[in-house]
Structures are given as C-alpha cells and as structure tokens.
Write a structure and sequence with these properties.
Keywords: Glycosidase, Hydrolase. This is Beta-xylosidase. The protein has helices at about 10-30, 75-85, 115-120, 175, 290, 315-320; strands spanning about 30-35, 50-60, 65-75, 95-100, 110-115, 130-135, 140-150, 150-155, 165-170, 180-190, 195-200, 205-215, 220, 225-230, 235-240, 245-250, 260-265, 280, 295-300, 305-315, 325-335, 340, 345-350, 355-360, 390-395, 410-415, 425-430, 435-445, 455-465, 470-480, 480-485, 490-505, 510-520, 525-534. It has about 525 residues and is mostly beta strands. About 45% of the residues are buried.
Length: about 525
C-alpha cells in the first residue's frame, strides 16, 4: 500500500534550511582552531597559566565520559610577561598547579588551583616544576608527581580536579645516584593502563630513565628504574606511543631556550631504544627549533578516522624572552615509523575524527621573529652556527660571514626594551657591515610532504627599522618566476610595518627575502616576518 505524502514548497524549504544549518553547525563544532605564538585563554577569556605539565585523559566523575585534563604550573612572572612582553624576567615564582578541562582540546575550562603554594612551601619558597598525573587503580586515586626542590613530591587526590594533598617525597639517590630528577613527565600507556615517570639524571642530565608508577610498601611510589639512554646531556624528557612503538623525546640543555627535538624508538617501554645512546633529530624541527620551543609533552588524539600525535613545546617566554605564548602545539606526521614535525602557527583539529589541517591564517615563514637562535650569530659556541636558523644570508659585497668575530657581520640584533614594545621577542634580523656591503637574506618556502603551499594570493608583512646610507633596500618575494618588491626609500627611526599584497604563489614554492646595498655601518633591522594566504 502506497502512502501519499504532500509537502508544500515552504515545508521543503524549511527542512532544507534545517539540514544545512545542522551540517554547518557540525563542521564548526568539530573543526576547531589551535593557534600558536599567542597567549592562550580559557573559553571565557581568562589567561591559561600552565607550564611544565601535561594533558591526561580521565573519565568525568559525573558523566563517565573521557575528558582531557591539562595540568601545569602557574608562575607569577607569567602574568607579568603576558602584560608586558618587553621585559625578560629572571625568576620563576611558584603560585600553584592549575587544572583545566576540555572535550575538544581547544575550548578549555578552568577547574581549580589543585595544588596551592601553601601546600608545597612548608619549609619556605622552593623550586616547583615539571609534573604529571597518573590514576592509581588500586587506590582509586590520582597521583601527581612534581619536581620539588631537590627531590620528587607525590601528592594525591580523590578526583582529577580535587585538591591534591601531600603524600610523600622521594629521594632518588638510591635509585639513580642523585636526589632529584633532571626533567620529568608522566606517561600513561592507554593500552595497558600503566603509568610511568620519564626522567633524566639530576646532574648533567646525560642519562634518561623509565620507572613504573604503583604501590610499594603501602605508598604510591616508583616500582623500578630502567636506564634507557646514556650520552649527550638532555632535558625535556617525554614519551608517546604510536602504532605500538614507543618514542622517547628530549631537547638540548639550553636552559629556557629553544632546541632541536631529539628522539629514540623502542618496541617495549623499557627498551632497548635505538639508535643506542644516539638520539636522532626529528625531521621538520630543524628549521625553527621545533617552532621555537623545547620538548614539553605529547598527547594523542585517537579519533575514529586517524590518530594524531600532538607535540606540546614549552616556550619559557617569561624567562627567555623568545616570543609570545607559553605552549606551542604542533601536529606530527609519520613516514612509516619516522615522525615529522609540522611547524605551523595556526591549524585546525577535529577531535572526534583525529583529522587536522593547516588553517587559512597560518604563517608559512619559519623563525619569522628571529627568536630561534640563542646568541649573536655567527656563534663560535654551542651550537656553533654561521647562519640564522631557517634563513640564508649571502654576501655579494663586504666582509665574509664566519667565525672571525673581528670582521664578520653580526646577523641578528638584540632588541632593546623600548623596541620590544613594538616587535616580538629579544632578537631581530640585522643587515649591516663595517665596510660598504651588498647583502641578500632570504628563506625559501616549499610544500612539505604533509603541508602544501597552495596556489593563490598571499600577503608578505614585516617590521623594519633602518638608517640612512642605502642605495638599495627592499623586501621581495619571488614565485613562479615573478618577483614583487617593496622599496624602502627613507630612513625609519621607529619600527615601520611594510607589506606586499596580492602575491601570486604558484608551484608550491616561494622565496622571501631582503636585498640591501649600503655604505659602511648603515643598518636595517627586520622583525616579525609573515607570509599568509589571503
């Protein structure tokens, strides 16, 4: 029997609009933006203060659904630097351990200061740093492992967002030979439910260890200790698991500054890790020292279409002055078992599926604010460098660039406090020489194996400050044989923003740079370079 259905045009139109609204809403609700190089805020616009911690998945106590919990340290100087990034601050004053929660990794809600300073400063102010949280199934409690002074403090709570109370301090002397860990993170293997402390040797940090977390002698403690690396000094030790393989990561001993991202791999969490005692540099991380950060922690987005591993780099900006924002999150790609670092300033993540893509407002310039390098370049000390990271400088006339500190041009300028009111970070590009010179400084941008430089129109922007004495000074971009330039014809005593708009980029390649022909001691400073698709 057929049922006759009569729908009016208005009804059909209404239903069509509802369906389209639902589709648009679903896309907006799922594909959300993650932005680096900014100070992050909660969904209600309040500052996120979370350094040296980690993101962990625990069930919500009310709904039972898995939720992301982000723990980290709130340092008093983080607020100061956020309000005035023109000053690099010398101290790290512990305020609290914070906890934020999210279901999509983008919209974060402040839960509480789950470990307050009065709990940890019982014997006066002390260092409180790297930390992580593990669920202890036997006790149905949550344990936080925290670097505390020269030992490891363990605190416990009945819930992920509850107050963590002092449980015990453990001295690592008998286990590794130093009372403290160098750097540490907590890793939970979702396949086994077991949690581990990943940490380095306290002096020199030239060894890395793995210890399982559990119950020993009626206390939450470390059950064992396995040395998995011995060699070059490393810090920022952290670990993730992908396709049943363990990836151990660490950074150089550069204090608060950015670093290569080094790694080892193993089929078992306790090793053996290969290459034995010889960490590899992750592909894609060399061009700007892992988006001007050091290894902090990783989290895994296990979507229904793919698993995405996210690198969470610490940018200790308030202590090093190396850019804006404390947390730099970049997605990894894999060529088989080999990880690849995608240095992006803006990208979109769909937590439900695990799919990510580059955002429309991504800046394709690497090290555009010239903060990746620790010292004046060329640098004769570790790391020995002739060129700025991510950039090439060619001398067409003038002194040769090299380790001759008397004659070689210095390629970067250390910004003054007043300059940092206008430009980002401590450093900028310096184009100058003691003799008459002709110089080309440039960066070639190409499609990577995982991010395509799309055909289209782009805008190139930079901030410049320059003296007199140039017969030619220009910013340029070259793509598909077509060159566009911006001629700087006048002296600029103050920083000036310049831009080239409607740049046709084709063929997945563009060269961006600066040409200068000047008299001895003429100078041009360049900072905050960006290439963004229109």
């Amino acid at each position: 029997m057929k049922i006759k259905r009569n729908f009016s045009i208005k009804t059909i139109t209404f239903l069509y609009c509802i369906m389209n609204f639902c589709n648009v809403y679903n896309v907006q609700a799922q594909l959300l933006n993650i932005k680096n190089d900014v100070f992050r805020t909660t969904k209600d616009g309040k500052p996120i203060n979370s350094q040296g911690g980690g993101i962990f998945k625990f069930p919500d106590l009310i709904t039972g659904k898995q939720k992301y919990y982000w723990y980290g340290v709130h340092y008093a100087e983080a607020d100061t630097y956020r309000n005035d990034p023109s000053v690099t601050l010398p101290n790290a004053t512990f305020e609290s351990v914070t906890c934020y929660s999210s279901v999509d990794l983008v919209n974060w809600v402040f839960e509480d200061d789950v470990l307050k300073k009065e709990k940890v400063n019982q014997n006066g102010k002390t260092w409180v740093g790297r930390l992580g949280v593990a669920y202890i199934k036997e006790w149905n409690k949550y344990a936080m492992f925290v670097q505390h002074d020269k030992e490891v403090l363990i605190t416990v709570s009945d819930s992920p967002t509850g107050q963590f109370e002092w449980h015990q301090k453990i001295n690592m002397e008998k286990m590794i030979g130093t009372s403290n860990t160098g750097d540490q993170t907590v890793f939970t293997d979702e396949d086994t439910g077991k949690s581990y402390l990943i940490y380095s040797y306290g002096r020199g940090r030239n060894k890395i260890y793995v210890s399982e977390i559990g119950i020993k002698d009626g206390k939450i403690n470390l059950l064992d200790c396995t040395e998995v690396f011995k060699g070059e000094s490393r810090e920022g030790n952290c670990l993730f698991k992908y396709n049943n393989k363990y990836y151990m990561f660490a950074s150089n001993i550069y204090g608060w500054d950015a670093s290569f991202a080094y790694y080892l791999t193993a089929d078992d969490i306790r090793g053996p890790y290969v290459p034995v005692n010889d960490m590899l540099v992750m592909n894609g991380a060399s061009e700007d020292f892992a988006h001007i950060s050091q290894t902090g922690f990783f989290f895994s987005v296990k979507g229904n279409k793919q698993e995405t591993i996210v690198f969470c780099g610490d940018r200790w900006a308030n202590f090093a002055g190396n850019g804006l924002g404390y947390n730099q999150w970049c997605p990894l790609s894999f060529d088989g078992k080999v990880p690849y670092f995608n240095s992006v300033s803006s990208w979109n993540l769909e937590e439900k599926t695990g799919i990510w893509k580059v955002a429309d407002d991504n800046n394709y310039i690497k090290n555009g604010s010239f903060e990746a390098d620790r010292r004046h370049i060329p640098s004769p000390v570790k790391p020995v460098q002739i060129q700025l990271t991510g950039w090439a400088s060619e001398v067409l006339e003038g002194n040769t660039i090299g380790l001759d500190s008397i004659n070689s041009p210095v390629l970067n300028h250390f910004n003054t406090q007043s300059e940092r009111k206008v430009v980002i970070g401590e450093k900028s590009l310096n184009i100058s020489d003691k003799v008459n010179f002709k110089r080309k400084t440039f960066q070639t941008i190409t499609s990577s194996p995982y991010i395509k430089l799309e055909n289209g129109l782009y805008t190139l922007t930079a901030k410049i400050k320059n003296s007199e004495g140039f017969t030619n000074l220009e910013m340029y971009v070259l793509s598909n044989g077509k060159k566009l330039q911006y001629a700087i014809k006048e002296k600029n005593d103050s920083w000036k923003t310049i831009s080239i708009t409607n740049i046709p980029v084709k063929g997945g390649k563009a060269e961006v740079g600066f040409l200068a022909e000047g008299k001895a001691n003429a100078f041009c400073y360049v900072d905050d370079v960006s290439l963004v698709k229109n």
